[in-house]
């Protein structure tokens, strides 16, 4: 199985473990409205390597990954979700990591 042009890896910095079982929604900005492209759940290693949508349908545009933090962290989540918005503007692989804890999160352009 090949990996998607958009992948993610989520690490729980409070436990030092991958964030397994975290729901993530992939959306694309169409005009001024977000359209859901797909939804997935992180695997045992905290990764999403493929989406059900065909890769060729993930064209250039503005995308959002919505990480459902409250679903993963429960009542200890200060942020119910984390939105990471990014531009898919070239053919390169786009890896979007997320580091999370009950009171914060960060992201960066991965490789």
From TrEMBL:
Binding residues annotated for substrate, in chain numbering: 9, 47, 108
CDD domains recorded: TLP_HIUase
Reactions performed catalytically: 5-hydroxyisourate + H2O = 5-hydroxy-2-oxo-4-ureido-2,5-dihydro-1H-imidazole-5-carboxylate + H(+)
GO biological process: purine nucleobase metabolic process
Pfam families: Transthyretin
Subunit structure: Homotetramer.
PANTHER family reported for this sequence: 5-HYDROXYISOURATE HYDROLASE, URICASE AND TRANSTHYRETIN-RELATED
The protein's role, per its UniProt record: Catalyzes the hydrolysis of 5-hydroxyisourate (HIU) to 2-oxo-4-hydroxy-4-carboxy-5-ureidoimidazoline (OHCU).
Family designation: Belongs to the transthyretin family. 5-hydroxyisourate hydrolase subfamily.
Protein name (record): 5-hydroxyisourate hydrolase
UniProt organism field: Reinekea blandensis MED297
């Amino acid at each position: 199985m090949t990996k998607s042009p958009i992948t993610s890896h989520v690490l729980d910095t409070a436990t030092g473990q991958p964030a397994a079982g975290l729901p993530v929604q992939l959306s694309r900005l169409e005009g001024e409205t977000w359209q859901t492209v797909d939804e997935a759940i992180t695997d045992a290693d905290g990764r999403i390597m493929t989406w059900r949508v065909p890769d060729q349908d993930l064209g250039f545009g503005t995308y959002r990954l919505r990480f459902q933090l409250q679903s993963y962290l429960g009542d200890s989540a200060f942020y119910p979700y984390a939105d990471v918005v990014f531009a898919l503007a070239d053919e390169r692989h786009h890896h979007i990591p997320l580091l999370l804890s009950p009171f914060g999160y960060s992201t960066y352009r991965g490789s």
